[in-house]
């Protein structure tokens, strides 16, 4: 190191910084600490915990913040009893609105999301929007099944009323709209017009619903070898692509045959949950004018009743 006097005159020049390395015989042999091996029960429990981890990394997603312990705990909950960390239950909940005509696979999608509920499946065709709930991987999944509000079977008054009722049932707002559309070329009676279905959804719920629509193409089992979304889009004449451009969302292709194995239905349910969770993390939930007015009327009612109660108390 260079040394200078008070007048900044060099006393000794800088030299080399030498780091002495040990010789081979200077290395010591250390005994590694002996740790007890995990029991088979502990190994099985850890496998159970890892199997509950469901994270999807998107390299192009700008808001990816990495794998954190908090996110891990939130995902797996408490092992063994299915309980959740306090305060995370509401954040994990998902609210869905199911749209589409009868006989095109909507009932199958509802049953899949609800765990193949035989009671729900045996009911007559819906006359009004109905709320169902179930728990999937420690998440409360709320499904609003609607009548055919996009078709001609209901009058305009009933269509408008049931559309708004479905929104009320998902308060403070749904995270996604699953729009069931018969896959083009499936040969099931007359092909459904996907453009008309998406335009009808926008007409009923407003332009703001665009980013929350997930088109669900059913009857994939009838398409033969074209059993992927890419194959369906490649074979499309352009009508389906024009319809999808209205919502900007990639569709899901679903095999909804009656003899679909339970394991496949479970996988499909979890796939929908993962897809909606991604949308929730990206956009939150859809807010309609009916939700804003509900909040206003609720606060106004609270104010009016509290004022009346305070006046009554003051008279005593």
TrEMBL record:
Coiled coil: none annotated. The keyword Amino-acid biosynthesis does not apply. InterPro entries: G_AIG1, GIMA/IAN/Toc, P-loop_NTPase, SPOC-like_C_dom_sf. The keyword Nucleotide-binding applies. Pfam families: AIG1 (PF04548). Gene3D superfamilies: 1.10.1600.10, P-loop containing nucleotide triphosphate hydrolases. Belongs to the TRAFAC class TrmE-Era-EngA-EngB-Septin-like GTPase superfamily. AIG1/Toc34/Toc159-like paraseptin GTPase family. IAN subfamily. This is AIG1-type G domain-containing protein.
């Amino acid at each position: 190191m260079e040394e200078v006097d008070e007048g900044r005159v060099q006393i000794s020049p800088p030299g080399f910084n030498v780091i002495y390395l040990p010789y081979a015989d200077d290395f010591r042999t250390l005994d590694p600490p002996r740790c007890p091996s995990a029991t088979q029960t502990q190994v099985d429990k850890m496998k159970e915990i890892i199997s509950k981890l469901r994270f999807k990394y998107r390299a192009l997603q700008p808001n990816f913040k990495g794998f954190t312990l908090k996110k891990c705990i939130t995902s797996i909950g408490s092992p063994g009893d299915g309980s959740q960390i306090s305060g995370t239950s509401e954040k994990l909940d998902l609210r869905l609105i199911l749209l589409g005509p009868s006989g095109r696979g909507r009932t199958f999608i509802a049953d899949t999301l609800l765990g193949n509920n035989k009671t729900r499946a045996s009911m007559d065709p819906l006359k009004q929007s109905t709320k169902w709930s179930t728990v999937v991987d420690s998440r409360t999944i709320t499904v609003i099944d609607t009548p055919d509000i996009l078709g001609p079977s209901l009058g305009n008054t009933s269509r408008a009323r049931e559309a708004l009722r479905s929104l009320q049932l998902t308060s403070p707002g749904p995270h996604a709209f699953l729009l069931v559309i018969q896959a083009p070329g499936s040969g099931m009676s007359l092909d459904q017009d996907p453009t008309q279905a998406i335009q009808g959804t926008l007409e009923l719920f407003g332009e703001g619903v665009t980013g929350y629509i997930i088109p669900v193409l059913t009857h994939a089992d009838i398409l033969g070898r074209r059993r992927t979304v890419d194959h369906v889009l490649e074979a499309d004449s352009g009508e389906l692509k024009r319809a999808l451009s209205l919502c900007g969302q990639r569709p899901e292709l679903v095999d909804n045959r009656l003899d679909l194995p339970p394991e496949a239905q479970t996988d499909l349910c979890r796939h929908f949950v993962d897809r909606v969770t991604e949308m929730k993390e990206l956009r939150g939930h859809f807010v309609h004018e009916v939700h804003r007015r509900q909040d206003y009327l609720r606060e106004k009612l609270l104010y009016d009743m509290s004022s009346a109660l305070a006046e009554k108390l003051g008279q005593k």
